[in-house]
Design a protein that fits this description.
Blueprint lengths: L6 E3 L20 H14 L3 E4 L16 H11 L4 E6 L6 H14 L4 E5 L5 H7 L6 H18 L5 E4 L4 E5 L13 E3 L4 H12 L6
Parallel strand pairs: 1-2, 2-3, 3-4, 4-7
Antiparallel strand pairs: 5-6
Helix pairs in contact: 1-2, 2-3, 3-5, 5-6
Length: 208
Amino acid sequence: MTEPRYGIWIPVYGNWGPLNQPEDPFDASYARARSLLIQAERVGFSSTLLAQHIINCYDQDFDQLETWTAAAALAEATEKIEIITAIKPLLFHPAVLAKMALGIDAISNGRFSINLVSGWFRTEMEKAGIPFPEHDERYRYSEDWIKVVKALWSGERVNYQGEYFQIQDLSYRPTPVAQPRPQVYLGGESDPARSLAILLPKLGLKLL
């Protein structure tokens, strides 16, 4: 019987849970994240998840930890814990993100995974001037996006023609430390989310 695995959220917003605790400050610093994760690894937690936002979704005047640079640093600062980093496909071209993920995979010696999030916080996109399609289209975009990422993690030369992305004769080195590739986790309850969830195992990817 498989033993349960326990993970923690990194407080990228400054804190989690109730917001009416004055003794729990909004501290979204990397120093705090690093300290908490090292303690979590020491006492036996098996994974951590870093949510992704470009502004704090409680109030943009609060600090917000940048997810991907923090994930790379946390990979270096730890030895055993799985680092799961959320990715909103609208923020990164898949060819760029696939290469970034391979870098953190190497730094972590294969302990890196991504959590595919098709996006919900419209405010941060609108403020940044980034197009934010409607719900179902975001999932179609995510499907095209993850197919590109998965292909580029294969180590083979990729030629891909999709609805949103066209890749020509592209391959990456080094190939992943995690075999056969970093894991991709997915959440969501809508019909498009379920359709994407059905697709992931067919691509050799995993559900969370």
